[in-house]
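pasting for ref. prot 1 ->
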Amino acid sequence: MLLYLRRSMKKLYFSVLILLICVIVGVSFYNRNTNVKKTIYAFDTVIEISVNDKNAKEIVNKSFEIIKKYEDEFSAFKPSSDVSILNESKNYKVSDDVYKIISNAISYSEKTNGYFDITIKNVMELWNINGTNEGRVPKDSEIDEALKSVGYKNISFDGKTVVLSNNAKIDLGGIAKGYCTNKIRDLMKENNVKEALINMGGNIYVLGDRTFDIGLQSPDGVRGEHFGVCTVKNTSVVTSGAYERYFESDGKKYHHIINPFTGKCAYSGLKSVTIIGENSEKCDAFSTAVYILGKDEGINILKNEPDLEYVIVTDDNNVYVSKNLKFKLTDKNYKLHKVD
């Protein structure tokens, strides 16, 4: 999920590459003769896939075909995509995958009490959160008008035809990488891939029989500096935070995570939220929603999702970790709390 508003695309590419190198702690494939690693730029971020398998090259190439297919269908910035056509026409028969991801998004909206909502696009456009360096602070009157179109109940279906009401527009950026990661994971499992690492611009999925140690980026540190390490296996690790993608105006920072009820940047007392689970798309949605909700309300909704683990970092450097997650704090400036 991350667009770096304060960086040029060239700098973004370089800095994400550094992140890919530094954020993974202790990842080294056990048979380098069958290991293939490839990096591309898609979904407005750097994507890296490493596969350790006798058919690694074929699997990696098929994985990037999947990425290209879904970027062409899901992007709100490509005029020919299903999403762009739907946003313009408000009534469009979409592909099976677009139908599925929109249906999933509505389910996540229901589970998060509307704090994850793909109909936020009109508000996002006001803030100019579109991958450029030109953020702006909209007037309250502009926000109030745009909020009239926000709400997942503005989406309805007539078979595979999606209907948008009240001038709503959708943006799948909050879960597109997660959906795509799930599809690549399924491809690898169907082909009995023995070990792989998928990094969709920070949405990480690890596949294989052994565990991986994943370092979590310190919100206050330099890129690649982590405050803790999760030990995981066959799962996804997704982080939302406001420390990378923001712009400044009149001495105040404005970040990219927008509260769908206020139309303004979410300030909930959190620095970052990491969600861990098998379903990368779901992790995507819940990391955003919990960040907006804040610690207490966020933990409350996560209690209803037993398939998800979490690491929540507050503004005062307290780290709240779900009790079943294997996690080690590595920065003495933070204080660890295990949550039952």
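and prot 2 ->
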Amino acid sequence: LVRNEILPSVDDGGYWSGETTGLRADGTTFPEDHRLTKTASGELICTVRDLSAEQARQTELIRFRTLMETIEDPVYVLNEAGQFEYVNDAFVRMVGYDRETILGSPPTLVKSADAVDRAEAALGRILSSDGPSSIQFEIEIQSKDGEAIPCEDHMGVLPYRGEEFEGSVGILRDITERKENEKKLEQQNQRLTEFAGVVSHDLQSPLNVAQGRLDLVHED
């Protein structure tokens, strides 16, 4: 590799970079980002960067995405700037936008300003020193065709890289059916209340008549 690729590349262009395998003092190997530069005087400057942590993180990210694609509920990841970094297929189906449009966009693409404020307040609670590890709250998602979809948003934060905030992750649950059932129950309760009022009034009228007759009897 050194003779056949690296040195010829440095001789021709003055620079070479690639991924190679490094050897530690204890005999273990590690992936490394290897860069070689040739100075004007003909000297070679070599830099090496250990890629172990970066590759481990990439592997975990692949596992995470594989897992998220098996979940039927919509899943999203926002980066530290609050932009969509990842969405699963279920999220794409719910909102109606293509993945290319979603990625890199702010949450206002699918949330109202009020919904965004509520989500940011929830994230603030999680990030506080004594905050919970995750929060569940109700929110409305606005689809591309204008439909307002009531959802539960179970939000948490991504693992920190050192002390740096990496972003947040959320799992949405469509609660349209539950909301419709709650509305039906509320309507039924309202009708029962109205019916009870009518029955009470209907019963009260004969009782008032009977009470009046009793009063007349007592007067006689």
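The CA atoms of residues 13 and 38 lie 9 Å apart.
The mean pLDDT is 82.
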